[in-house]
Amino acid sequence: VVGLSDEIGFSCGLTDKEQGILRISASFHDIGKIGIPDHILLKPSQLDDAEWAEMKQHPEIGEQIMIATELDGSQQASVVIRHHHEYYNGKGYPDGLAGDEISILSRIISIADRYDAMAVTRTYHQARTHLEIMAILHQETGEKHDPELMEIFCKTIECSKFKAAR
After folding, report:
1. Count of CB atoms within 10 A of residue 57's CB?
2. What is the pLDDT of residues 23-72, one digit of tens each?
3. Of 56-60, 97-101, 124-128, 139-143, minimum mean pLDDT range
4. Cα–Cα distances in Å, from 116 out to 14, 49, 108, 153, 158?
5. How far apart are CA 75 and CA 165, in angstroms?
6. Which of 111, 104, 119, 102 is nearest to 156 (CA)?
7. What percentage of the chain has pLDDT greater than the value 90?
8. How far apart are the C-alpha atoms of 110 and 88, rounded to whole Å?
9. Scanning 14, 40, 62, 85, which has its CA 20 to 30 A from the CA of 22?
10. pLDDT at res. 166
11. What b/e readout covers 97-132, taking b as 16+ CB neighbours within 10 angstroms?
12. Residue 126 binned pLDDT confidence (cut-offs 50, 70, 90)
């Protein structure tokens, strides 16, 4: 997620400072999952409503952890971490932000995280091929993902060392 986010950010022309905050945020985007019980994190099947509600707390937990570090850039990174599951159409979580209300850094991490999540085998699914992942991401564009960022991502991923092997 870090490497792919970095490549997308570079393709977007982010400043060095923005790129640094992006790297920190991407590195720790899921740190809040340490506050989620293992029986939920490692569940090999679909989460029920109560489990899903608990899982959806990880961005807020991650925000609080990042703030507590007091590292240089932690304040900015904490907001990016909080919003990495916001959807472009406003139906994400935790705050229901939409479009440009969501930091470009959060929108970048959202795409990179989604690609990565589908490219690797998890307890609840097998890894998908690059073509399968891209088809899903295209379907989600405008709903979950920023259409302009997806255009940049589509060009970036084709020559990326992080492109799914299959």
Report:
1. 15
2. 999 999 999 999 999 999 998 888 999 999 999 999 999 999 999 998 88
3. 124-128
4. 21, 24, 12, 13, 14
5. 36
6. 111
7. 90
8. 10
9. 40
10. 67
11. beeeebbbbbbbbbbbbbbbebbeeeeeeeebebee
12. confident
3-state DSSP of 63-116: HHHHHHHCCCCHHHHHHHHHCCCCCCCCCCCCCCCCHHHCCHHHHHHHHHHHHH
Q: Residue 27, class by beta-carbon neighbours within 10 Å (0-12 exposed, 13-18 middle, 19+ buried)?
A: middle
DSSP, collapsed to helix, strand or coil, labels residue 141 as strand
**pLDDT tens-digit series, residues 6-35:** 999 999 999 999 999 999 999 999 999 999
Look up 33 and say whether it is catalytic.
yes
Query: Which among 33, 43, 56, 163 is annotated as catalytic?
Result: 33
pLDDT at 44: 86
Determine contact, residues 77/21, Cβ cutoff 8 Å.
yes
Matching residue, tokens 């990880």: 58
